[in-house]
Amino acid sequence: MKLKILLTILLLFIIALPAEAQCAMCRAVLESEEGGQTAKGINNGIVYLMIFPYLLIGGVGYAIYRSRKKAREQETE
Which residue in 25, 33, 51, 58 is a FRET match for 67, CA 20 to 30 A apart? Predict the structure, then answer.
């Protein structure tokens, strides 16, 4: 069962499609420009800014996991 879940998660990461992260107003204004380079830059910036909350939550989760693991090891000693 765990192997199926792991393979499914791995498959989802491999098949990930690029996401457009612009709000409707930003998209409308930026699409009116020629070339679309500004729109690509804004979209990339939004995606990069979305990464940091997940990294912070992951770091806090890892710290909690590590502290609980240490507490369990000290109880068994």
Answer: 51
Distance CA 1, CA 47 (A): 33
58: Cα within 13 Å, side-chain hemisphere: 5
Residue 49 · residue 58 · CB < 8 Å: no
Q: CA 17, 22, 27, 29 torsion: positive or negative? A: negative
Q: Note the pLDDT tens digit of each residue in 46-67.
A: 888 888 999 999 999 999 999 9
Contact in structure between 22 and 46 (CB atoms under 8 Å): yes
Concatenating the DSSP letter of every residue in 1-69 gives -HHHHHHHHHHHHHTPPP-----HHHHHHHHTSSS-HHHHHHHHHHHHHHHHHHHHHHHHHHHHHHHHH
